[in-house]
Amino acid sequence: MQTSPLLAMLLVITAGAAIALQSPLNAALGRHIGSSLGAATVSFGIGFALLLVVTIAYGHGDRLLESAHAPRILLTGGVLGAFLVWATLSSVTVLGVLTMSAVLILGQIAAALVIDHMGLFGVAPREVSLTRLLAAGLVAAGVVLSRY
Fold it and tell me: Membrane-spanning regions, if any (predicted)?
């Protein structure tokens, strides 16, 4: 499915807002049930069920079987997603939503610089330029400003 750059940006902005909402919601669920791991499990379970229904509704259910033949490294996304949900719901009450989100973005940018530079996972290699390093530095400054 082709997506225009503007639509892609709107989708990612919406996803970013969803992460900001998801973390305090999951943290509240964790407090309610007395377990941050349990809350992450419930969150993932509901997300899994929804994605399964949508995947089948779009006629892609048979494609799920192909994951059994994928390189194992490609299956670690679920592990990383589970860690993301648990880490953010465990941290949001300590850091607040703004700082937690800023730190999350800083981590994403640091990893993105490495992924882009090395051309990992089929991404076209891009140089680590001064401009890109300054962008990461500004996000790091934003983390500091959001906290102190």
Answer: 37-58, 70-89, 95-115, 127-145
How far, in whole angstroms, is CA 119 from its chain's centroid? 20
The model's pLDDT over 1-45, given as tens digits with 9 standing for 90+, comes to 577 999 989 998 999 899 889 999 999 999 999 999 999 999 999
Helices 130-147 and 97-118 pack at an angle, to 10 degrees, of 160
Angle among Cα 121, 124, 129 to the nearest 5 degrees reads 115
Provide the residue ranges of all domains of the chain, joining segments of one domain with +. 5-147
Say if CB 10 and CB 18 are below 8 A apart.
no
pTM of this structure: 0.82
First to last CA, the chain: 43
Residue 105 in contact with residue 137, Cβ under 8 Å?
Answer: no
Residue 11 CA to residue 114 CA, distance in Å, equals 24
